[in-house]
Amino acid sequence: MLTLRQLACLSALAVVGMLTLGTPLLDAQTLSPDELASVLDNAATKENHLKLAGHFEAEAKQLREDATRHEAMTARYKKMPARPGALHEHMARHCENLVASLRSAAKESDELAAAHRKMAESPK
């Protein structure tokens, strides 16, 4: 049986996997994986830092939306009647862990966006 920490780590890895596999994010500012790599490789200009800030802001927004969706799923699983062999309690814990991981990833994306905005304004 997985520990809570192991489940949280697996959930975080699942989120990272979804993002790196090119799960479409809805904001126009989000860069494709190839665009992101190119902009990161050339992140010496104000324009590129602003592109990166926009990307990470859009990513954070999507992560928060995903967290909200999983909160709703948690509530649904918790409302299910208990039955022998039912896994809904495990599913509810999974969603709770995923919500925490998604919110943490959103916070980190916000921090990256802020750092790139600061770098865009800094003189060389």
Mean pLDDT: 83
Q: How large is the count of helical segments?
A: 4
- Percent strand: under 5%
Terminal Cα span: 52 Å
Largest beta-sheet details = none
Coarse structural class: mainly alpha
Gross morphology is elongated
Low-confidence runs of at least 5 consecutive residues: 6-10, 20-26
User: Residue share in helices?
Assistant: over 70%
- In the residues, how many domains can be counted? 1
Radius of gyration computed on alpha carbons: 18 Å
Count all strands and give the number.
0
Q: Output the helix-strand order.
A: HHHH
What's the gist of this structure?
The protein is mostly helical and 124 residues long. The chain has helices at residues 4-20, 33-41, 46-79, 88-121.
What does this structure look like?
By secondary structure, this protein is mostly helical. Helix 1 packs across helix 4 and helix 3 (46-79) packs antiparallel against helix 4. The chain has helices spanning 4-20, 33-41, 46-79, 88-121. The protein has one domain.
Task: Produce the secondary structure layout.
Blueprint: H1 4-20, H2 33-41, H3 46-79, H4 88-121
Helix pairs in contact: 1-4, 3-4
Descriptors:
4 helices, mainly alpha, 76% helix
